Amino acid sequence: MTSSSKIAVRELPLFPLPEVVLFPSRPLPLHVFEFRYRIMMNTILESDRRFGVLMVDPVEGKIANVGCCAEIIHYQRMPDDRMKMLTLGQQRFRVLEYVREKPYRVGLVEWLEDQPPTQDLRPLASEVEQLLRDVVRLSAKLTEQNMELPEELPALPTELSYWVASNLYGVASEQQALLETQDTVLRLEREAEILTTTRNHLAARAVLKDTFNNS
Fold first, then answer.
1. Residues of the chain with pLDDT > 70: what percent?
2. What does the pLDDT read at residue 129?
3. Do residues 51 and 32 lie in contact, with contact meaning Cβ atoms separated by under 8 Å?
4. pTM, full prediction
5. Quick check: 3 pLDDT over 50?
6. Do the Cβ atoms of 76 and 84 come closer than 8 Å?
7. Please, are residues 21 and 82 in contact by the beta-carbon 8 Å criterion?
8. With 90 as the cut, is the pLDDT of residue 89 above it?
9. Mean pLDDT, rounded, for 12-34
10. Among residues 182, 166, 192, 205, which one has the least CA distance to residue 22?
11. Cα distances (Å, whole numbers) of residue 68 to 32, 50, 113, 135, 166
C-alpha cells in the first residue's frame, strides 16, 4: 500500500453546532461563549488552529457523523473572555470514534474527498450557475430588493457545489446530505433539482404578482 492510498487519520477537537453545516472553502463566523469551548479554542490557538464543525439536529439532538474542519483565520477576545472568530472551512471528515467527551469532544477522524470525476463537470456546473442566477433575479423582483450574486462565483465545479450548498437557507438536513455526498456530479445534480423547484415556485409567484399589479 502506497502512502498516498492510506487513509489519513488524526485526532480533532469537535464543535457541534445546531443546524450549522460548514463546507470547504466557506467562511463561518463564530461567537464562542461557553466555558468548555473557550478552553477548546485557547488550546487550538496554541496548536494548528483547526477544529471540526458537526451539525446537531435540533429535533432529535443527534450529532452528525460527517463534518468539516475549520481553521481560525482571525479572532478577537472580549473583556469577559468571550471570543469572536472568523473561521474557514477546510477538508471534510468522518468521525471514526470519540477519543474523549470532557470538557469537550475530541474525535478520531478520517478525511473525505470526492471521487475523481468520470465526466466533464462544466456543463452541469454551468446549468447550476444559471439556475442560481434565475433564482436571485426572481427573488429580487418579488422582494423589490437589490439582490446580486458575487461578481466571481467559484470557477471549479466542486467548489461551486460547496458554495451553492452553503447558501441554501433553512434546510440544514439537506445541506448535511450534500456535505456527505462524495460525488461532485450527484451534489450538483441535487442542487439543480433544488434550484429548479425554487425557480419554478418563484416564477409562479412573480406571474401572480404581475397579474395583480396589472389588474
1. 93
2. 94
3. no
4. 0.89
5. no
6. yes
7. no
8. yes
9. 95
10. 166
11. 18, 10, 11, 27, 12
Return the HEC string of the chain: CCHHHCCCEEEEEEEEEECCCCCCCCEEEEEECCHHHHHHHHHHHCCCCEEEEEEECCCCCCECCEEEEEEEEEEEECCCCCEEEEEEEEEEEEEEEEEECCCCCEEEEEEECCCCCCCCCHHHHHHHHHHHHHHHHHHHHHHCCCCCCCCCCCCCHHHHHHHHHHCCCCCHHHHHHHHHCCCHHHHHHHHHHHHHHHHHHHHHHHHHHHHHHHC
Predicted confidence band at 145 (pLDDT cuts at 50, 70, 90)? confident
Cell of residue 3, nine digits: 502512502
Q: Cell 457545489 appears where?
A: 161
Q: Is the pLDDT of residue 5 over 50?
A: no
Q: Which amino acid is at 206?
A: A
Q: In the chain, what is the straight-line distance between the N-terminal and C-terminal CA atoms, in Å?
A: 72
